Write a sequence for this structure.
């Protein structure tokens, strides 16, 4: 990019919006359901790992287990429960997002996130206007660029 002495290159965040279409809605639901399924799988693995670790400690310790062994088991159970709580929070967020996606009306515009862009400014440009740019997508295709590019 050729920039003169009177121009400056800057970086800006561009808001990306999408038009809700049947295709977008289906893809968003599939993606969220895949996240939920992955979290369920992680929860199962976590539970099995915790049981396996506790079983190993019990197998290697004296019977009845002493206070040190009981403390180890309790620590493992606490760690498992903390991680389980984190995963359940993630699952709840994904379920809420899935519910929100299902409630969206077709042709509604929703925010999809942001991307970065490089642009030039020169004396006399309105920086505020140049910073306020949005892209509107329909099924992944740019439908409209809103603002001063």
């Amino acid at each position: 990019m050729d920039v003169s002495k009177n121009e400056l290159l800057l970086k800006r965040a561009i808001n990306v919006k999408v038009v809700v279409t049947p295709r977008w809605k289906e893809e968003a639901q599939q993606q969220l359901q895949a996240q939920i399924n992955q979290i369920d799988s992680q929860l199962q693995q976590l539970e099995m790992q915790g049981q396996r670790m506790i079983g190993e400690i019990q197998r290697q310790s004296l019977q009845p287990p002493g206070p040190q062994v009981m403390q180890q088991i309790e620590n493992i159970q606490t760690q498992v429960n903390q991680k389980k709580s984190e995963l359940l929070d993630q699952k709840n967020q994904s379920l809420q997002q899935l519910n929100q996606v299902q409630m969206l009306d077709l042709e509604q515009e929703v925010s999809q996130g942001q991307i970065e862009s490089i642009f030039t400014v020169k004396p006399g440009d309105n920086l505020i206007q140049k910073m306020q740019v949005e892209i509107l997508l329909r099924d992944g295709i740019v439908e409209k660029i809103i603002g001063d590019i």
Observations:
- The first strand starts at residue 8 and ends at 19.
- The radius of gyration is 26 Å.
